[in-house]
Design goal:
Blueprint: E1 4-16, E2 19-30, E3 34-38, H1 45-53, E4 60-65, E5 68-71, E6 84-87, H2 99-104, H3 111-124, H4 140-152, E7 158-162, H5 170-187, E8 190-195, H6 198-204, E9 207-212, E10 215-219
Parallel strand pairs: 3-8, 3-9, 6-7, 7-8
Antiparallel strand pairs: 1-2, 1-4, 4-5, 9-10
Helix pairs in contact: 3-4
């Protein structure tokens, strides 16, 4: 039996009063599923991830994670207490920290425990060779591997990815999204991936929804 991990109900959001980005949208995500959110730029896909992580507050609606309400008209859990990982398109790493230190950042435990876990996740993402390198010395693909390792290292049940591969060349993009899917399935990590490419969504996702004119459309793969 599938277990629901995330529920978004009747969510609405506006940046300016009476100018809604989207209205009354609802969807859910089960444990271990990869959900794609498809649509052109500027229609609120990234904003939706920010609402789930708590970086924005909705106008109306409710967001639940497992059986706990993260956001409603009476409740708002701050981002650092939600336990949800986030990977953005670029500039996601702390420039003054090495790859290893970036991955260690969100891990709890002793320094030795953090080192071991961070090194393990860098290895999973084939990024262990540049553990001591700083972001400005890494290619875009290498930075994204470290960013995904950092999001996964605290072992969240849910990871959100905002156009994580779009700045990479075609071959690297295909390789990294394939490896990311294998890793998510191996660790049974639920995830939401925002993209504007149907091919990418079909390649990596179990199900796809499309954000169009402020509404959600369910698509079949």
């Amino acid at each position: 039996m599938k277990k629901e991990i995330l529920s978004v109900r009747s969510l609405s959001f506006e940046y300016e009063k009476n100018i809604e980005i989207f209205s009354n949208i609802s969807f859910s995500l089960n444990k271990g599923e990869i959900l794609g959110i498809l649509g052109p730029s500027g229609l609120g896909k990234s904003t939706l991830l920010r609402l789930i992580t708590g970086l924005e507050k909705p106008k109306t609606g409710e967001i639940s994670y497992y059986d706990s309400i993260l956001s409603s008209n009476k409740i708002f859990v701050p981002p650092n207490q939600r336990g949800i990982g986030l990977v953005v398109q670029e500039k996601a790493l702390f420039p003054h920290l090495s790859s290893l230190e970036n991955v260690k950042f969100g891990i709890k435990g002793s320094n030795r425990e953090k080192n071991i876990k961070a090194q393990n996740f860098l290895k999973l993402l084939k990024a262990e060779k540049f553990a001591d390198s700083y972001p400005n010395s890494l290619s875009g693909g290498q930075q994204q591997r470290v960013a995904i390792a950092r999001a996964l290292a605290p072992e969240p049940d849910l990871v959100l990815l905002d156009e994580p591969f779009s700045s990479l060349d075609k071959d690297l993009r295909e390789e990294l999204r394939r490896e990311t899917k294998i890793l998510f399935k191996k660790t049974n990590t639920s995830s939401i991936i925002v993209t504007h490419e149907m091919e990418e969504a079909k390649d990596i996702c179990d199900k796809i929804i499309k954000l169009e004119q402020g509404k959600i459309l369910n698509l079949t793969i």
